[in-house]
Amino acid sequence: MSVDAATVIADGRAVLGIELGSTRIKACLIGPDAAVLATGSHEWENRFVDRRWTYGLDEVWSGLQAAYTDLVSDASGRHDAALASVSAIGVSAMMHGYLAFDADGELLVPFRTWRNTSTGPAAEALTTSFGVNIPLRWSIAHLYQAVLDGEEHVPAIASVTTLAGYVHEKLTGRRVLGVGDASGMFPIDPSTRDYDADLLGRFDALAADTALPGPVRSLLPDVLVAGESAGGLTEAGARLLDPSGALRPGAVAAPPEGDAGTGMVATRAVVPRTGNVSAGTSIFAMVVLERPLAGLHHELDVVTTPAGDPVAMVHCNNGASELAAWVGLFRRFADAAGRPVDADTAFDVLLREALEGDADAGGLLAYNHLAGEPIAGLSEGRPLLVRSPDSPFTLANVIRAQLYGVYGTLALGMRVLAEEDVALDRMYAHGGMFRTAGVAQRFLAAALDAPVAVAGTASEGGAWGMAVLAAFAAHRAAAHTSAAPAAGAAASGADLDDYLLESVFASTTFDTADPEPADVAGFAAWLDRYRAGLAVESAAVDAL
């Protein structure tokens, strides 16, 4: 037992971060030095209902309560400490999507997640009008598609938000969003770190004479940057999170953020010339920009860091889920053979086997598309493993192809970013697949042809990053109290980076993998074949 950790928890000085990911809801408790004190989690899964990917709001709360209960149990088991209060709290969740409510706060249609690709006409119209790329998954595309389709609920819309914004409002009573999450709803003006006023006007002009009530700005949450006050945990919010009644209200609340922003914080990639890759159910790269992009590219969308600095995002709907399915297949074989192995062992064995594969995976192609993939031009997904008759069909090549497949669409988008001459000093990666040292990281370095660093906190992911943002909010609140700065003073990316360097990453070590020439050449050859083979994937969508 750690006496210091127990005291921090008992005194209510710990900080709580929560993230609602695509397959897991995670809770992470950290101490003043950002070290993890306890964690909790709950598995959940989206459902495909009426041809839309969704989660029920009852699942949101049962899952949050289960993850929090698991965290309380972990704190007790590790430190013999009862968790009754925290100094700060932050909520993060998958970005984008569509949650529309009426004036009484009732959900009008089931939650439409980022994974849905039914917003093509709206995204195209908005991209043309705005002159910036509006992807299918953005909230404003979902809203405008509902308008174009004349959906019955449109006249009753009083507010639209993201999953993180919804949970935060229930916990604090504040209808706000962190700027990073807000940037996946509607374009942000980097000079104001708020919704772009000119584009708001253009949207209203497009939506004139439709059933949409009022100007679009009145429907969107207010925007805050990292470090600004986003309210506090209320009594009602505490009961929602902890129905046992043990958790006390009063914690400082950080602006709710999207999973992309928390990934940037978790890897200290928040200032220009830095970037990160987050790998989970989806996979995306975030690169902080020094200057605006020269052109409009459908492979790239511009969002922001939690401090409001512009970021080029390469977002792919499909990440490591298909790889996990293959690992599950081999785990079942081990069970049937009477030699069961746990998931971590199976991943470790199979990923290390991939190192023995051919640099181009022996000509094997793996398409990980469980859902549609706009960058690849696919409205739906059909996972495929394709090979020519003479391809060396070995376990090493199969798993190497699956790992390459996780990065395939991402690499297509990153090639576009390279053509924009965007410079990078460092690229970080985080997510569970990087727990096996030196494999997924090495192949990502080959895919990007750039060094890739992984920190010891990489597998903690967004819940830890959100806890750090909550600690930053508490830090700024304390500084404001003592220094009495001007009201509304906002953090900059440099402020956030200084805090991360001094208070979070000062003693953190990073393991960096440099791209190996043979891997780079092998992946490039594989990607050329992958690009050509997208015709096979498209045919599968049409035929199956």
Your description of this structure?
- The chain is an alpha/beta fold.
- It has 3 domains: 1-95 and 162-184 and 228-267 and 461-495, ATPase, nucleotide binding domain (Nucleotidyltransferase, domain 5), CATH 3.30.420.40; 97-160 and 186-219, 2-Layer Sandwich (Nucleotidyltransferase, domain 5), CATH 3.30.420; 268-457 and 514-544, Nucleotidyltransferase, domain 5 (2-Layer Sandwich).
- It is built from 16 helices and 23 strands.
- The strands form 7 sheets. Strands 17-18-16-15-21-22-23 form a 7-stranded mixed beta sheet, sandwiched between helices.
- Helix 10 (321-336) crosses helix 11 (343-354) and helix 11 (343-354) packs across helix 12 (395-419).
- The N and C termini lie far apart (56 Å).
- Mean pLDDT is 93; it is low at 483-489.
Given as residue ranges, the uncertain stretches (5+ residues, pLDDT < 50) are 483-489
Rounded to the nearest angstrom, the radius of gyration is 23 Å
Q: Kindly report the spatial arrangement of strands forming the biggest sheet.
A: 17-18-16-15-21-22-23
Q: Indicate the overall shape.
A: globular
Task: List key phrases describing it.
single chain; alpha/beta; Nucleotidyltransferase, domain 5; 3 domains; 6-stranded mixed beta sheet; 40% helix; 17% strand
